[in-house]
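--- STAGE predict ---
source: upstream dedup step, 1 unique chain passed
mode: sequence only
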Amino acid sequence: MPGSGKSTIVSALKARGLEALNLGDGVRTEAKRRNIEPTGDNLGKLMLELREKNGPGAIAELLTNQ
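--- STAGE serialize ---
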């Protein structure tokens, strides 16, 4: 959702000492683990595959394992 203000919110939360997690980082880490080139198309396909196989929380679960 480009332009929705995510970066603004993250910056404000970080300024207050809170940690921010990026779901895209989890998908990129998984792509690297699988030796998949991290193109937008490949990352999108991987994200859909993970959600289909492991449910809607699959990407968030990747971050809990890091």
